[in-house]
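Usage

Read records sequentially. Each one opens with the input sequence:
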Amino acid sequence: MHLRPYWPASHETRRGRHDPLPYRNDQIIDAAMARALHADACRDHAAIAWVVLWDLPAYPERYAARLVTSGSAPSPYLLLADTLGGIREMLPPGLVRSERMPADPPEVVEIWFAGQ
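and closes with the structure output:
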């Protein structure tokens, strides 16, 4: 069974759509930092995922991936790339891809879960 990340209450964005993810405190990280954060999260949480997003208001026309863990709000840690392939190359190894679900917010492209 895969757990979907919890999406906090949404608010209206400048584009008029609801945006469930935080942007004000984003910390842009690189692949090495993503691996380190992922390893720490795996020790402390039952479920870990990287949510791949497209065209966020703060990062238009770009792909992003945000670390999400069980029992907490989405983290401020964010990978950025111009292509989906670029984001996938930056994700930590050993993740399992999950397709976008109809209930996911529109900016969600896919979710990568830590392998068991």
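Summary fields computed downstream for this record:
- The CA atoms of residues 31 and 91 lie 6 Å apart.
- Confidence is low (pLDDT under 50) at residues 6-22.
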